[in-house]
């Protein structure tokens, strides 16, 4: 099938993998000139009503989700009776492949991945969707070291009235990671996913899942009957606090587990800060998660470990350059007749912004535009991004005139320029100011009309602009992918 076209648009370029329901291909989107992944239902299953509905359900389920740690659905359709799903292509490897390559993962890295998976589950559960098959094979690790959950093929909505496609007593999911209630064929809840995540974290730390019997049934029953092995005996450097989180997540009784994915994520965040402080090191995969933690939690870890490798190098070079300038100025002042140092007229100075300065702004929607990652737009690291939700029909197709993010400078200040770096050039945006964060765009004063922005954009504010405390980047048009990404946003005066 290599070279085949789906819908006259998606050219299948390479076979990526095969599962029980479908084949996965790397494909090229001829319309938008990008690489995508295509899941194509097996031919022999196209006439199976239950399998067909389950496949269609995956497309509908994931299309409702928009989260940086969930693989995004781009399109879906049918070609000659065979349904397909088009997803974002994640270049990297599965978490299972990573464990096979490295064996036991560093403790902080394992916890960081678990946090990202828990945040993805929190998003799915907020939409009343249970994954039911959380396992390392269904977690992709991209080139930047971020975890992304995929394969919602057996996900089930918890909304009342939706029929379950599985027969009573049938076990769905992979038995090495299945929750006890799932192994017994009982109803699943969000806490079933938390159990599976606890098992995945156990495997990341020890190199193998805790239960593995001679048959799948024996493995499933071990989850019901056998106690969880002591992770500290298998991995002595695991702290008691981390072991306690795993034990709670993997409790046989669902009522004894964490109440929800957010609670599990919060406990893991505290553990990550402690474990990072203990180890004294933080790979890039860990650093990018540390920067997303609440300040009171993150401050447990040394500040230098919360900076990415590129930022640490940049600061070192800046310090070296600053020392060179100081030496040059000292030498200049030793020359006979040398006057005081000159300051160039019109020279701009960047405002120092705390990580809490950035806020998402979605007044015409649900009021939320990825608030969990908005601080990444002011963290000084060009490898991290805040992004809008994906609007496949554009903002106008979603009934919105715009979305954006604003910066709280702490007090009214006269700003002369807004600077940004984006990985999605072509978006249209303007600049607005206010002295109170108005809940409607009409309550903001337009300073720079919306216009198309390049990858590195500098937006000078009009001369005589009064001081404002809040400065808003208001995005009115999205690039072709239906999503805007802001790598860094800053103000200069």
Number of domains: 4
- Estimate percent helicity: 25-40%
Q: What is the class of the largest domain in the CATH system?
A: Mainly Alpha
**Low-pLDDT sequence parts:** 160-171, 304-345
Strand tally? 20
From the spread of the alpha carbons, the general shape counts as: globular
Query: What radius of gyration results from the CA coordinates?
Result: 25 Å
Q: In this structure, how is the largest beta sheet organized?
A: 6 strands, antiparallel
Known CATH architecture of the largest domain: Orthogonal Bundle
Strand order of the largest sheet: 1-2-3-4-6-5
Q: Which assembly state applies to the chains in this document?
A: single chain
| Fourth-tier CATH superfamily name of the largest domain | Transferase(Phosphotransferase) domain 1
* Gap between N and C termini: 58 Å
Which topology of the largest domain does CATH recognise?
Transferase(Phosphotransferase), domain 1
Question: Helix segment count?
Answer: 13
Q: Mean pLDDT across all residues, rounded?
A: 82
The portion of residues forming beta strands comes to 15-25%
**Class by alpha and beta content:** alpha+beta
Enzyme class: transferase
GO biological process, one term: negative regulation of fatty acid biosynthetic process
Keywords: ATP-binding, Kinase, Nucleotide-binding, Serine/threonine-protein kinase, Transferase
Domain Protein kinase: 10-272
């Amino acid at each position: 099938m290599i070279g085949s076209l789906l819908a006259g648009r998606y050219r299948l370029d390479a076979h990526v993998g095969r599962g029980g329901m479908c084949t996965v291909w790397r494909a090229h989107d001829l319309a938008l000139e990008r690489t995508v992944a295509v899941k194509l239902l097996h031919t022999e299953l196209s006439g199976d009503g239950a399998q067909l509905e389950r496949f269609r359900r995956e497309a509908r389920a994931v299309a409702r989700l928009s989260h940086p740690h969930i693989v995004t659905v781009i399109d879906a359709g049918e070609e000659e009776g065979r349904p397909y799903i088009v997803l974002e292509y994640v270049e990297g490897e599965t978490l299972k492949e990573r464990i096979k390559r490295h064996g036991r993962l560093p403790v902080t890295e394992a916890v960081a991945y678990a946090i990202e998976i828990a945040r993805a589950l929190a998003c799915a559960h907020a939409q009343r969707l249970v994954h039911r098959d959380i396992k390392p094979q269904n977690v992709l690790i991209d080139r930047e070291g971020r975890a992304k959950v995929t394969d919602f093929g057996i996900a089930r909505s918890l909304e009342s009235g939706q029929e379950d496609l599985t027969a009573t007593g049938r076990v769905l999911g992979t038995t090495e990671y299945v929750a006890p209630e799932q192994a017994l064929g009982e109803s699943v809840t969000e806490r079933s996913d938390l159990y599976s995540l606890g098992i995945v974290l156990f495997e990341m730390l020890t190199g193998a899942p805790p239960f593995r019997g001679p048959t799948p049934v024996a493995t499933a029953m071990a989850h019901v009957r056998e106690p969880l092995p002591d992770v500290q005996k298998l991995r002595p450097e695991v702290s008691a606090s981390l072991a306690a989180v795993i034990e709670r997540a993997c409790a046989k009784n669902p009522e004894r587990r964490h109440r929800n994915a957010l609670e599990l994520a919060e406990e893991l965040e505290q553990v990550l800060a402690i474990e990072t402080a203990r180890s004294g090191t933080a790979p890039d995969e860990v650093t990018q998660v540390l920067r997303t933690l609440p300040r009171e939690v993150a401050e447990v870890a040394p500040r230098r470990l919360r900076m990415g490798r590129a930022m640490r190098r940049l600061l070192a070079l800046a310090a070296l350059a600053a020392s060179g300038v100081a030496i040059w100025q000292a030498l200049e002042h030793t020359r006979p007749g040398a006057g005081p140092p000159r300051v160039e007229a019109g020279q701009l100075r960047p405002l120092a912004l705390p990580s809490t300065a950035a806020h998402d702004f979605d007044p015409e929607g649900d009021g939320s535009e990825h608030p969990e990652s908005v601080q990444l737009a002011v963290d000084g690291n060009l490898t991290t991004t805040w992004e809008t939700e994906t609007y496949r029909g554009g903002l106008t197709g979603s009934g919105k005139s715009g979305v954006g993010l604003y910066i709280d400078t702490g007090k009214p200040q006269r700003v002369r320029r807004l600077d940004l770096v984006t990985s999605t050039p072509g978006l249209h945006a303007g600049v607005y100011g206010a002295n109170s964060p108005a809940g409607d765009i009409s309550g903001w004063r337009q300073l720079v009309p919306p216009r198309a922005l390049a990858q590195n954009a500098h937006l000078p504010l009009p001369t005589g602009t009064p001081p404002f405390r809040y400065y808003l980047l208001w995005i009115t048009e999205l690039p072709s992918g239906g999503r805007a990404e802001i790598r860094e946003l800053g103000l200069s005066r």
